[in-house]
Specification:
- 2 copies of one chain form a homodimer.
- Chain A is an alpha/beta fold and 250 residues long.
- Chain A has 2 domains: 160 residues, Molybdenum Cofactor Biosythetic Enzyme, Chain A; 75 residues, Ribosomal protein S10 (Alpha-Beta Plaits, 2-Layer Sandwich), CATH 3.30.70.600.
- In chain A, 36% of the residues lie in helices and 27% in strands.
- Chain A has 9 helices and 12 strands.
- In chain A, strands 2-1-3-8-7-6 form a 6-stranded mixed β-sheet, with helices on both faces. A 4-stranded antiparallel β-sheet of chain A has the order 10-11-9-12, covered by helices on one side.
- In chain A, α8 runs antiparallel to α9.
- Chain A is elongated.
- The two termini of chain A are 22 Å apart.
- At the A-B interface, α1, α2, β2, α6 and α8 of A face α1, α2, β2, α6 and α8 of B.
- β2 of chain A pairs antiparallel with β2 of chain B, so a sheet runs across the interface.
């Protein structure tokens, strides 16, 4: 752990997310997991299975963030073009990775490793494989770009395989207070508190429950001591309004 | 309806989505609804509550897409900065909208319309309001940018309010075939079919159910006739492999 902050960008690749047919589940998982590793997910983009868009987007973000993760598009079908697009973005050859081929040869019965499946053995030249404990066909890493599967169970297992190799800073701590009051009444006191604690990020997320408006106030910081003081002051702000409140379980 | 195609970009604004605390639900809803209106969601970006990032992102995408939708950041608290950022992006003043003020005055008891809540009456100069039938505080539109609430029930109601004003092209039709076979066996036939039907987008989405691999093959097109022929040919491809398959309910 260091004082340096690390940031990341996620590229969710796939028409099925943009069409609404499939609900993405990978952003939420990755955001939470990266927080615990001291890496902040600062942007996510959902982009279609269009080669030029994928290539351009990778090149826009890989210089701007410490880490780039991609999900989707590494299977055997014609619409799985992430791997070749990453190669194009880096200007390197897209070629068979001997270890990936060996993994696939061990996986399939003789005669079943057809041309389509062999596409899953190709990576950008120089890539390092990311183990897939679920269905074997690996992901890969090239420089700061980590290419993962789209299926959530496989994506999560790949993150588990690689996370020990990710350098991070101080993990983000958070506390969350649910207040039985509309946020418009809390806004002034919360805003003043935010000004006095610039390194504690304060968010206000209203919701309605049983027809009553309530709000979840979230404090986040890498500084546990500042977080504790700010939390205590926040209780005071809420008490002054006479609103009932409780800290959510961590 | 016309032959012109219309595209859109969604900006999901909010730290709570990137941290993984909140699962976004607005992308899926908007993707589906726009499809039915003949508008294709071609990109979505999730960005944090950081003013410069919001301003820059709006200016990157508003020239590149026919429509831009934003969700989140239009409430009364200090972290609700979408409205002022849109004004900055367009280079116009951020000022009180008389109709929005009247809506808020009708909503709150005398004395309850405090300074924080009055922030919700401000829009970029020249904006048109978007009605909020759920909790009243409106969204707004300026040129091709539509600014919506982040809470899904309110966001959905706002889309309902504005959708009749959105010009669209031919709606996207789709059919989905679930095949009890691993996609690696289907890949070759599907890829060949895709080549013969360039205006029918073919996607392959593997999943596992009860420990067996299956795949959902999705055909999408604005041309109902091409879709029907491609679907019929796809049945042939699957039958040749001896795999069982069924069309999913539309």
């Amino acid at each position: 752990m260091s004082e340096k902050t690390y940031n990341a960008c996620l590229l969710v690749i796939g028409n099925e997310i943009l069409s609404g047919r499939t609900q993405d589940r990978n952003l939420q998982f990755l955001g939470e997991r990266l927080n615990s590793l001291g890496i902040r997910l600062m942007e996510a983009r959902v982009i279609p299975d269009v080669a030029d868009v994928i290539v351009d987007t990778i090149n826009q973000v890989r210089g701007a963030f410490d880490y780039v993760f991609t999900t989707g598009g590494i299977g055997p079908t014609h619409d799985d073009i992430t791997s070749e697009c990453v190669a194009r973005a880096f200007g390197v050859r897209h070629c068979e990775h001997p270890e990936a081929r060996a993994i696939l040869e061990a996986l399939y019965e003789p005669g079943q490793l057809n041309e389509a499946r062999l596409r899953m053995a190709k990576t950008p030249e120089g890539a390092t494989l990311i183990e897939n404990p679920v269905s074997k066909a690996p992901g890969f890493q090239i420089e700061n770009v980590y290419v993962l599967a789209g299926i959530p169970s496989i994506m999560q297992a790949m993150v588990g395989s690689l996370q020990h190799g990710l350098a991070g800073g101080l993990p983000m701590q958070s506390r969350s207070l649910t207040v039985e009051a509309p946020e418009g009444r809390l806004a002034k006191g919360l805003g003043e508190l935010q000004e006095r604690y610039p390194d504690v990020e304060m968010g206000s997320y209203p919701f309605s429950r049983d027809g009553r408006f309530a709000v979840r106030l979230v404090l986040r910081s890498t500084r546990e001591d500042h977080l504790a003081t700010a939390a205590s002051e926040l209780e005071g702000v809420v008490a002054e309004l006479g609103a009932s409140a409780r800290w959510d379980p961590v």
